[in-house]
Write a structure and sequence with these properties.
With about 425 residues, this protein is mainly α. Helix content is about 70%, strand content about 5%. The chain has a two-stranded antiparallel sheet with strand order 1-2. A two-stranded antiparallel sheet has the order 3-4. A hairpin with a 4-residue loop joins β3 and β4. α3 crosses α8 and α9 packs parallel to α12. The longest helix has about 60 residues. The chain starts with 12 loop residues before the first helix and ends with a helix.
């Protein structure tokens, strides 16, 4: 994979290099004492995530009487676990990811007659979408990082065996077995510990999600390019206009397009093997987070928090990117499925009626091959990742909030 010219790639290579994702998967990354510095950094991030999850679990014991904090800790455990899993999974499968990065090149398809403008548009969409998610996830990271300085006078009452200690509000609100005087006096040191956890979460989320989004856009538009070439196969200058004179040329051009399609299918299968387990966890975790965060916004507002209070703003800033990300993920996989399914329609739409029997047989075999290729990302034997999945999550979220609203409304009426 030659990446000297970023303009030749659909993925946002500059962003991948800035986040370190590129060097994490690259075999030519800087090494010291035989170790890839970026993989060592990834290992540190994963260990920090494990530490955070452990602290959140241990701290939850002291918040059994505080429903808001208990739910907040559960939400953070899910989010940090998933972010750590992403970094671990990429580091573990870096070689496979690198070997499939060549499909993101604008010149990956071997047929020189493809419409390159389609792939250039894909690059523009990839850059725009990844920048959008950098902004969204960065806003979440910043909101959770700076929130303690907007609630200086807020303290959390933590019950120990013989007393209740008042700890100053922090980013993640770990509970330490120390006195409240020591914690509040040295608050900045404890803040830095929690800040690192938040920043590492943000980095892992941005690095992985922007990469997956770029890859999904790449796959969809590479397939679209092949489909467009199928449709216009016999309309190009110098191609078939007279069956008797140009049948061999038609067969040759069709074989080139079939070869491009098969190469893409092979790459998609390999990349799906990496994406599938993480996507399964992601959709489950993100669906849970959206429902939980919407629930917490409702409960906090019902309990007297203003809509512009720091706790609610943090939740709103967090739930919005999660909803947008879930929608974009489901939309991109739906688009890939549609592009794959459009191959046969594209073949049928080409000017095949005037072609020879041999050409028609090859066309028919290609269409049968496409029908047999069940190339869709699944999270179960029957469930595929598509917009219907997003709609079901949002419907469930709406149903839960509606039930809660009615329940609390009936309570107030009584």
């Amino acid at each position: 994979m030659n990446v000297n010219d970023d303009q030749n790639y659909i993925v946002n290579l500059k962003l991948m290099k800035i986040t370190g994702f590129y060097h994490l998967i690259s075999p030519g990354a800087p090494k010291y004492f035989g170790f890839n510095i970026y993989k060592v950094t990834a290992a540190i991030e994963v260990m920090t995530g494990v530490f955070s999850i452990t602290m959140l679990f241990l701290s939850s014991y002291y918040y059994l009487d505080n429903t808001n904090e208990l739910m907040s800790h559960f939400m953070l455990v899910v989010a940090i676990f998933f972010s750590s899993l992403k970094i671990f999974w990429v580091s573990r499968n870096s070689e496979t990811i690198w070997n499939n990065m060549d499909m993101t090149c604008i010149h990956f398809l071997s047929n020189t007659g493809h419409n390159k403008e389609i792939l250039k548009n894909a690059r523009a969409k990839s850059i725009l979408t990844t920048i959008l998610f950098v902004i969204l996830w960065s806003s979440v990271t910043v909101a959770w990082s700076i929130s303690p300085f907007f609630v200086k006078d807020v303290y959390l009452n933590v019950k120990f065996k013989d007393e209740t200690r008042r700890f100053r509000y922090n980013s993640l609100n770990y509970v330490y077995p120390i006195s409240e005087e020591f914690y509040n006096e040295h608050f900045l040191y404890f803040y830095v510990v929690e800040l690192l956890s938040v920043v590492f979460w943000g980095h892992g989320t941005v690095a992985y999600d922007t990469f997956v989004i770029s890859i999904c856009i790449t796959i969809a538009f590479q397939l679209k390019t092949i489909a467009v070439s199928y449709i216009s196969l016999n309309d190009r200058k110098g191609d078939i206009k007279n069956l008797k004179d140009n049948d061999l040329e038609a067969m040759f051009n069709l074989k080139l397009l079939i070869q491009d399609q098969q190469n893409m299918f092979k790459k998609i299968k390999e990349i799906y093997k990496i994406f599938e387990p993480v996507t399964f966890v992601q959709l489950a975790a993100q669906s849970m987070l959206i429902i939980l965060q919407a629930y917490m916004i409702f409960i906090n507002h019902y309990n007297g928090f203003s809509l512009i209070s720091v706790p609610i703003i943090k939740l709103v800033v967090t739930v919005a990117p999660n909803i947008i990300h879930l929608f974009i993920t489901c939309y991109l996989y739906t688009n890939i499925n549609d592009q794959k399914d459009s191959m046969n329609f594209a073949l049928y739409s080409s000017d095949w009626t005037a072609m020879s029997i041999n050409y028609k047989k090859m066309l028919l075999f290609t269409m049968r091959m496409n029908d047999a290729e069940k190339l869709k990302l699944k999270i179960s034997l029957r469930k595929i990742v598509n917009l219907e999945m997003f709609a079901s999550v949002m419907h469930l979220t709406y149903s839960i909030i509606s039930v809660l609203a009615k329940s609390y409304g009936n309570t107030n009426t009584k």
